């Protein structure tokens, strides 16, 4: 990565986000990573390059407080390229409307929608019109296809897609944005899916079979596709992409 690159990434402690963080660090980017916990192994391997922030993205008030401080603007201040990877996400609540607790809905909407949209605005405000700024929302096939029992997850991921489409129309000279579906990836979230009650998620057997038949992408494979695309000249040519459609 020839340019002085600063990346802000959410959900770097496991799964896809940990693999994306690893790739960005290996390519020389400084990474400011936000999650509720820390990634000790990554921090040890990349001392001075990984800057961890412990924050619960389900709490928009806490996120707003953090964004009101200096940490983000200081992190991006002398960067030539600024990347935002909105990766943190959650599946719950799963089930029909009768099984969705209001607080669980609010939590999912905060993590999956409010936090990525707040971070997107804050990053652009911190970088202004100068740095090459690129935003990835980690979306899902569920944004584009409806699944029974996943109304909250489908709706929140579709919100990211539509946010990217609208932001792309704003005509910000230095900004590219894309909502990227990462494929079906062998992470804790897939384990959570295989643990779901069939009564709440009737399509569960399809995901059981993907795991059984070795059809899941590894986090490293999926992260490689996301990062290669993020750093490519083509990034942002379309506001939504599925990595399975990329060459
Ligand atoms: P995962 O294994 O469950 O990891 C989720 C990451 O998000 C963790 O690092 C977690 O960190 C962070 N996170 C979750 N809730 C948070 C909160 N309240 N505040 C701050 N950080 C939080 O998930 P994954 O499978 O890697 O998924 C990554 C992204 O890909 C998600 O947006 C997901 O919707 C999307 N996706 C995944 C798949 C798949 O097959 N796995 C398919 C399509 C899309 P802490 O627990 O340390 O906070």
Annotation keywords:
9 helices; binds NADP nicotinamide-adenine-dinucleotide phosphate; 247 residues; seven-stranded parallel β-sheet; Rossmann fold; alpha/beta
Overview of this structure, please?
The chain has 247 residues and is of the alpha/beta class. It has a single domain, classed as NAD(P)-binding Rossmann-like Domain (Rossmann fold), CATH 3.40.50.720. A 7-stranded parallel beta sheet has the order 3-2-1-4-5-6-7, sandwiched between helices. Helix 1 links the parallel strand 1 and strand 2. Helix 3 runs parallel beside helix 5. The longest helix has 26 residues. The relative contact order is 0.15.
Count of DSSP H/I helices? 9
What's the assembly state of these chains? single chain
Rg over alpha carbons:
17 Å
Overall structural class, as computed from helix and strand content, comes to alpha/beta
Query: Superfamily at the CATH H level?
Result: NAD(P)-binding Rossmann-like Domain
